[in-house]
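Suppose a colleague, Dr. K., hands you the sequence of a protein chain of 326 amino acids and asks what its three-dimensional shape might be. Before reaching for any lab equipment, you can write down a predicted structure in C-alpha cell form. Begin with the sequence itself:
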Amino acid sequence: MNILLTLIYFAFRSNSFGFLLTYSYLCIMKQAMIFAAGLGTRLKPLTDTMPKALVPVGGRPLLDINLERLRQAGYTRFVVNVHHFADQIEEHLKEQDARCKEQGARGKEQGARSKEQDVRSEEQEMSLASEIYISDERELLLDTGGGLKKAAPLFKDDEPILIHNVDILDNVDYEWFRRQHQEDEDAVLLVSRRKTKRYLLFDNGMRLMGWMNIETGEVKSPYPWLRQAQLTIDDEWKVCAAADSQFPIFNYQLTAFAFSGIHSFSPRLFPLMERFPDKFGIMDFYLSICHRSRIFGCVKDDLQVLDVGKLDALDKAEEFVKLFTI
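The predicted structure, expressed as C-alpha cells, is then:
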C-alpha cells in the first residue's frame, strides 16, 4: 500500500506526462525474480567470504546492477532467493533501503529547488519505490525450478514474472521483452542464434518442442517421436534427422536456438509445479509441460549476454556495464 501512496503523491506533483507514467505503474505492477542463491564456486576465492550477488563489478554489486536496470524498466516488485551467505544479502538490502529513505528525507529538508531538480529527485525516488522480498533457501538450495516454486506465495497472481540470474549481464530492453509475453502464453523464453552445446528446439510457430545436447546427442522432449529421432543441427540452425533415422519428416520443421537464461513466467503455471519435488530445474519443468502448455521462444538477434560466473569474466563485465547500463 505504501508504494501506491508514494506513486500517487508524485503523480500530483508532476506534469500530465508524469501522471500518465504513474498511472501505468499503478495499473501494471511489474514483478521479477532474481536468482541469487547459488554458491558461486567458479568465483572462488571471492565467494569464500561473500555471496556472488555482492561480487562487485565497476564498484557496484551484481545484485544492485540488475535491480537498478529492472527498476529503470518500471519493475517495482522483486523476489530475491538466498542461500550462500544469505545474511550478507539481507543486510545489504536493508542498508540500501535505509540509505534510500535517508536520501529522501534529506531532499525534503533542502527547501526550495529548481523544477529540474524536483523532476530528477522525483524520478529517483519513484525508481526506489519498490518492494523486495527474500525467499529463504538457507536449509536447502532448490535449483531454479524449486526456487521459483518456493517463492510462489511472494508474487501477485495477475502479472508475468521476469526471471533473471544475478550473475548475468545483458543488453535486453526489459520493457520490450515484457510486451512480447502475450496474455494467452504461459512462458516466454528469450533466445538467440549463437553457438553453444545445448539448444532449445522450436517449431515454426516458436513453440517449445524439446532440448538437445549436440555433443552427446541427448534429446529431452515430452514427444516420444522426437526423443527417438537421431537429430543434427545444420549451419542455419535447422534441426535435421540423420540419414539413417526413422524420422526424416523432421527435416527443416524445427529450429534450434540458444537460451539466454532470461524468461517470463506466468503465475498460472504454479499449480503444475505441485507434482514436482522441492528441488528441480526450471528447464526440466518447461520440457515436461510444453506439450500441454503454451511455452514460446522470443528471438533477439542482437542479444548480448555475459555470464559473470568466472573470475576471468570480471574485467569484461566492467566494460559491459559501461556500455549497457545507465
